[in-house]
Prior knowledge:
Helix 1 (13-22) links the parallel strand 1 and strand 2 (26-30). It contains eight helices and four strands. The protein has helices at residues 13-22, 41-46, 65-75, 90-112, 124-148, 159-170, 182-191, 195-204; strands at residues 2-6, 26-30, 54-56, 61-63. The two termini are 30 Å apart. The chain is of the alpha+beta class. The longest helix is centred in the middle third of the chain and has 25 residues, at 124-148. It folds into two domains: 2-81, Glutaredoxin, CATH 3.40.30; 90-195, Glutathione S-transferase Yfyf (Class Pi), Chain A, domain 2, CATH 1.20.1050.10. Strands 2-1-3-4 form a four-stranded mixed sheet, with helices on one face.
Amino acid sequence: MYQLYYSPGSASLIVHWLLLELKQPFALHKVDFASSQQKSAEFLAINPAGQVPVLFDGVRYICESAAIVLYLTEQHPAAELAPAIDATKRAEFIQWLMYLTNQLAPSFRLWFYPADLGMTEYPATTKLALQHKIESCWQRLEQHLEQHGPWLTGAQPTAADFLMTMYMRWSRNMPNSALAWPKLKWVADQLRQRSSWQQLNQTEGLTEWLY
């Protein structure tokens, strides 16, 4: 049985969601950020970065959301949440996983945590620059979906679309949420209709951006 260390609404959301989609047995271990549990000696022994998600597969602890996504799709290929390893779309799937993780995730991290740069609050120009950086990612994804969609790798949804939807959720309170881009909104609307999404939100106690 998988063991997932998570915090509600954080980057662990994608792993929780995929485990539900894959219909795999798993146990949840909530890491309480409010009490800085992620900085405890016990948790740092599992992940020295002090971050979630962490997935234990019965043998090893695996960290980093995109790595776990890739690992799970490889362990459970019958679910078809990723192109087969020898499929022509495989490289594109991996590319989008890395794009989302390397471009959107760090920008959102800065948006939410100015303390990472030693600030309590950003100057207006810095805040606007971060907003534009995130929106430039939405624009690139929108253009790709217009030309090659409706999903990131074409005709079928993959775990990359689920990961993108998690990041879209993070934009919900920004001046321009990802739903302002029609093709992105279509992806989010389709995936938010899945029973796994509703179950995920209920379990994590999330009440925003359900539909």
